[in-house]
Amino acid sequence: MRIFLSFCMICLLGLGVVAGGIAYGYSLYTSKGTLTKDVQLIIPKGTGVGGIATLLKEKNIIKNPLLFKVMARVTDVQSDLKAGEYQFFSHVSMKEVFSKLSSGEIILRQITIPEGYTSFEIVRLLKKKKGIEHDIKTTPREGTLLPNTYSYQSTDTAHPILDQMETALTDILEKAWNARANNLPFKTKREAIILASIIEKETGIATERAKISGVFVNRLNKGMPLQTDPTVIYAITKGAHKDNGKGPLGRRLLRKDLSIDSPYNTYKYAGLPKGPICNPGKDAIIASLNPEKHNYFYFVADGTGGHIFSKTLAEHNRNVAQWRKIRARKLRGK
């Protein structure tokens, strides 16, 4: 009997030790951690539980890698832990770490592509952006990317972001094409993008886009050359614009530039140029397919960021002379 009682006492003591160990382990699992300041950590794709535990220990996010691996098995989340970049706040508990990793609460960064950027400029911007791996070997075709704000994570390469831009452009163009005005002087979606790209480069004022579209449509209907400076700039640069604060050419457009022999030069050749001269935004695309109806054939800068529109060449020449005076005063003011 004494032997049996001794055995029972040993078993109870063992169970007590196990229970105490479990309670202690659970306390470590749920209590505040030792991390003293917020940190960011990237979990690479394909990293297993052991590798994740090591990375967390190196950043002092957890103190006990063995407990992390045990709790991953106990809570059955081994296969739920997701790769990506994470933000861990000071004193985060191991339980909170598991919650963050299993829910995929990654840091999403953003990149904004300005409307009117050429594909060359977009690639250049992606290459400069922190956290994006630069795997671009071929510059996308002009006019196939939609400028907008896109989210990414630091483990992303540039190609998925470009894919988002291409898909967004296709979706917007399809909707705008289905809602287009009647009797447009072009027949294809690509031609709509070509016109939209010119509109985008001619004005940054949203309320002017449909009006400028109307001018170009009037000219196309009459067989008049579009005579738009941005197409000449593209003929010279092929979209590889300068980035020195002096404009896309690194200088002013000169009169002699207007005679360059290029299918993009709308001073030399009537009709739409060979292809888009940038990647237009949503509003410019809609404007190209829904031009304002009016009798204007000309426009020139008004000195305030907008434009003055005219119906006749004589009226336009007067407006041009006025613009030159304004520009001369501005240059003298500098």
3D structure, described in words:
- There is one protein chain.
- This protein has helices spanning about 1-30, 50-60, 65-75, 95-105, 120-130, 160-180, 190-200, 210-220, 230-235, 280-290, 315-334; strands at about 40-45, 85-90, 110, 150, 300, 305-310.
- The protein is mostly helical and about 325 residues long.
- The strands form 3 sheets. The protein has a two-stranded antiparallel sheet.
- Strand 5 (about 300) and strand 6 (about 305-310) form a beta hairpin.
- Helix 2 runs antiparallel to helix 3 (about 65-75) and helix 7 crosses helix 10.
- It is elongated and about 85 Å long.
- It starts with a helix and ends with a helix.
Task: Describe the structure using short key phrases.
single chain, 334 residues, mainly alpha, Dna Ligase, domain 1, two-stranded antiparallel ribbon, two-stranded antiparallel sheet, 11 helices, 47% helix, elongated
